[in-house]
């Protein structure tokens, strides 16, 4: 049975403190079915990796990132292996100046330390010191820049057939024209509909799917060379170049930064 991350009343009730936070570590994987709540939620991982399902989108949350989920937004959550993470719940009336759509952000040391402090509070009304710390969390979220950790899902059944096949085998390097023939589409139609329904070209969608899968595999401790081969790259250098263009750093440095931030939270 999935244990509660935080007292249910601090998630569902408009009463109580305007901000409540919690941290949780468990040895088994964590899975929460689709649900929503009146409070906005900022969630992140301390170690490992989580995925969040939002409408027709799939988000991946590595340990150095967090996902903002506005009030009343239906979502599901699951972790890959053991779970260690945190969540902040903010009353709806304090979300007016926060992002109105879900977004991924890269956490800062200031945000993480403020959340860590907030997670020790008992769930009562905040005193002056606690209020200042809670305001720091809100300010850091409001000032954060959006990062691309989402994979949109198309609606056209033919495109879904392609994306599902790709997701099951990301090493499949068939060209757009070959996928179009396989799904019974003209190449130009496939290209156009991909952009219309996902906001990404076919090539961009496949690269994003590979990037998110790379983060999942890296969270499980898989070697960079193995990840590159599993995702269909002919050599490690090509994979590293893709990773650097997407996240601004190499896989090795990214994982080193994740490990450093995770250790600082221990």
UniProtKB/TrEMBL annotation:
Q: Does the keyword field hold DNA-binding?
A: yes
Does the keyword field hold Membrane?
Answer: no
Keyword annotations: DNA-binding, Repressor, Transcription, Transcription regulation
List, for all copies, the residue spans of the domain called HTH araC/xylS-type.
Answer: 160-257
User: InterPro entries from the entry?
Assistant: Homeodomain-like_sf (IPR009057), HTH_AraC (IPR018060), HTH_AraC-typ_CS (IPR018062), RmlC-like_jellyroll (IPR014710), RmlC_Cupin_sf (IPR011051), Tscrpt_reg_AraC-type_HTH (IPR020449)
PANTHER family recorded for this chain? HTH-TYPE TRANSCRIPTIONAL REGULATOR NIMR, TRANSCRIPTIONAL REGULATOR-RELATED
What is the protein name stated in its UniProt record? Transcriptional regulator, AraC family
Q: Which organism is it from?
A: Caballeronia sordidicola
Q: Where is the signal peptide?
A: none
Q: Name one GO molecular function term.
A: sequence-specific DNA binding
